Amino acid sequence: MRALRRLNDALERGALVLVVVMMAVMCVVTFAQAAGRYALHFSLVWSEELSRFLMVWISMLGGAVAARRRMHVGFDALVNGLPAGPRRAARAAGVTLALATFACVAWYGYVLARFNMLQRSAALEWPMGVPYAAIPLGAGLLTLFLLEELCLTLARRQERP
Amino acid sequence: MILTLIAAFAGLLLLGLPIAYVLAGAGLAAVLVQGKLNLTIVAGKMFEGLDSFPLLAIPFFMLAGALMNEGGITRRLVRFAQALIGWVAGGLAYVNVVAAMLFAGISGSAAAEAAAIGSVMIPAMKDEGYEEEFSAALTAAASTMGPIIPPSIPMILYGIIADVSIGALFVAGAVPGLLLGLGFMALVWWYTRVRGYPAGRPAGARELLGAFKDALLALTMPGIILGGILGGVFTPTESSAVAAVYAFVLGVFIYREIAWSRLPALLAEAGLGTAVVMLVLGASELFAWILAAERVPVRLAEAVLAASQSPWVVLLLVNALLFVLGIWLEPAPLLVILVPVLAPLAARVGIDPVHFGTVVVINAVVGLITPPVGASLFVVSSVGRVPVDRVSRAAWPFVAMAVAVLLLVTYVPPLSTWLPGRLMPR
Questions:
Q1: N or C: which end of chain B has fewer CB within 10 A?
Q2: Which residues of B358-390 are buried (b: 16+ CB within 10 A; e: fewer)?
Q3: Is the ipTM of this complex over 0.90?
Q4: pLDDT (tens digit per residue) in B379-418
Q5: DSSP 8-state code for residue A120
Q6: Of A20, A33, A102, the CB nearest to B264
Q7: Interface of A with B in 112-141 (CB under 8 A)
Q8: Structure pTM?
């Protein structure tokens, strides 16, 4: 459990650094595109594609980080209204289902990304597996974070029977 | 397949999971039960949902908002609003609405606006003797102008999902947004009469001019965004990048209030805010695809049209549906789930797509302040340290006013269609 938390701490920090760098690059590239076309009448053919790929990566990595920081909102009024025992059971069930979902997304994302390594993107001519890899990595990260959340939920149940 | 989808959606939602997980899980469950589709579709559709150029406007507008707030823009806008109207009875309450209106021209998100204005205005109003729940509820209500007065993140989403010009939707939101502001000011006027709220210190002409000059560079931002889009200089997506760069230059080089060392934190804030919206979009792509594959939009349209062909009845039904669902769902998931179903229906009975988009977005945004669960209510409750149930009770008159404006915009189409018709090349 402690090992998992340390691992997740490191992963969260790493993912956040990537998000920050990608945000900065995306902003510069898109602005350069608009300014270049308007002021200098030249256009970067690859800028739109690069920005889109960065966006996919930011969404998946950032989505996982946001999950660990509990930034995703749900409708939890009903669950919160339950007595303590059933409440924990409902939470554990929900987290387990979410964990299974994203583990599934991560696995099939991996299959899809590997399959797409052969295909090249239109402008940058990168393997399409590069942008696709955001799905298995982001979903995998999310799965690890959800595993930690599940452990926490279950541990709390043992503390207060 | 459709029954599994809806049952799984309801079940996961009731378990209290975040909407993004609920949508992904329901889509996966439906695909598993159907059993014939290749399961890579769960990852493929998520990628397709995220891989879209117009969506780039979301991170840029979020970044612009974060930079503007950090760069002292909020304070300057409040100071200007104060000099403008702070001296009448109930002055600070009017200042709250006017500052929110000005801020709305920069921000495209209600939560960001509620946090920014609330952190300045709620303590100030409390100090002057306004009830804290009134101050918080007013701030939440005024924040709904953020995504209605352009720029607007929900308008971008609507434009992408329903394939309507984002520029036209932006312009269409201007008049309804101002109407909302006027409506809230009318409520402030009434409360001031009943409760005798105090007047602020009158500002001299020199002070007003000084505050105006100080805020001028921030006030030109909406002009740059809208002018750029309408003049064909850049696309709405590019305008969002221009807005972010403008806010950056203003905050770092001109006002010099943002230290370089703060930039990573601001980029992280905007990046995570974006990811929260985007994960919902990515997860909803499969969900929406299943709805379309099961011909739900067509079947729903047929069922409704069998009952009535009148656009007015259809609009009433749509408004009622969105209002009820909007109490529980945030604008982003509400739009991605329902717009693909509702937009074809509206087109069938001949409702103007820009008009319909404006109505749908306003309705979705009103859900942010509808008790018991409204995101803006939670934001002002935490920023202003007021218990959320008291904010909720104080919010009802504002919700009623917002609904009145919604109905006005619904049944007087020129309020949303006239301005884009005049300004946009068709």
A1: C
A2: bbbbbbbbbbbbbbebbbbbbbbbebbebebeb
A3: yes
A4: 899 889 999 889 999 999 999 999 999 999 999 999 998 9
A5: B
A6: A20
A7: 112, 115, 131-132, 134-136, 139
A8: 0.87
